[in-house]
Amino acid sequence: MPPPLIDVRIPRSLAFDVNSVATVTVRRNNEMKNFTICAPLIAQRSEYFNEALQGQWRTEKRSVELTGVRPADFSLYCQLLYTSKLLINPAYDEESTDYTETPSDLSDENDQEDLLFHHLSDVYVAAHKVRDTITKNLLTDAALAHFREAPSEYEFDVEFDEEADEGFTKLPGSGVVCDVYNGTNKACKLRRLIVDIYRVYGPSIKIIEMQLKIFPKQFLRDLVASMKEDPDNEWDVQTCDPTTYHEEPVEF
């Protein structure tokens, strides 16, 4: 049987004017930047912008304030919004020339962490902030794809005990775990993915407990609960259905 047709036709009443734009002022701490975006497009994807732009459609100047998000992260969010593609960082792609800076809040003790996981988690938190489920699912898929193709010789960034196994696959570092847990809520499926990765491929819970000042307490609770639910590690992150880590889109 041939695959079904993808019908993109819509009535004029559902079409939007690509020239209809809005100014978004994005700021976090001392960082601030104005973005000009296609208002109907972002309002279609983001519940936050859909609500913020209500009542502004008939005005010539539409403006929205977005706080708590780094402009660099919002820039990547917009790229993903417009193209369904995301620029990967230069640590992963030597030909990349943009977004080369290391996140300013990346601590010295975590400066060896994988930057791509950091960038993905930062943009994910931005998408969570604006309540864009589609983008969150795309970023979760990207994080899972990056994990699955990581070299097995990568070593975790905390000190292991003598009995710990060597040659772990690439893990989201403690900075990524903190960013995701501090920037999302318990319904976040990226939290579940991180927990599943640590349960199967991470160091022992005793080693992680030694890092209580680094890892969020809720992460440790989730990890222990996950170990109880799947004590034999039957769930395989490497081969599972990616949609397991997707959130249901919200209609608005």
Q: How would you sum up this structure in a few lines?
A:
The protein is mostly helical.
Please tell me the total number of domains: 1
The coarse overall form would be: globular
Question: Mean pLDDT, as a whole number?
Answer: 80
Order of helices and strands: EEHHEHHHHHHH
Class inferred from helices and paired strands: mainly alpha
CATH topology: Potassium Channel Kv1.1, Chain A
Domain BTB: 22-90
Protein name: BTB domain-containing protein
Structure keywords:
mainly alpha, 39% helix, BTB/POZ_dom, BTB domain-containing protein, SKP1/BTB/POZ_sf
Note the topology.
Layout: E1 21-28, E2 31-38, H1 39-45, H2 47-52, E3 63-67, H3 71-83, H4 115-129, H5 133-148, H6 174-183, H7 189-201, H8 205-209, H9 217-229
Helix pairs in contact: 3-4, 4-5, 4-6, 7-9
Structure write-up:
By secondary structure, the chain is mainly alpha-helical. The chain has one domain (18-245): Potassium Channel Kv1.1, Chain A, CATH 3.30.710.10. It contains 9 helices and 3 strands, in the order E-E-H-H-E-H-H-H-H-H-H-H. The chain has helices spanning 39-45, 47-52, 71-83, 115-129, 133-148, 174-183, 189-201, 205-209, 217-229; strands spanning 21-28, 31-38, 63-67. Strands 2-1-3 form a 3-stranded mixed β-sheet. Helix 4 (115-129) packs antiparallel against helix 5, helix 4 packs parallel to helix 6 and helix 7 (189-201) crosses helix 9. This is BTB domain-containing protein. Residues 22-90 form the BTB domain.
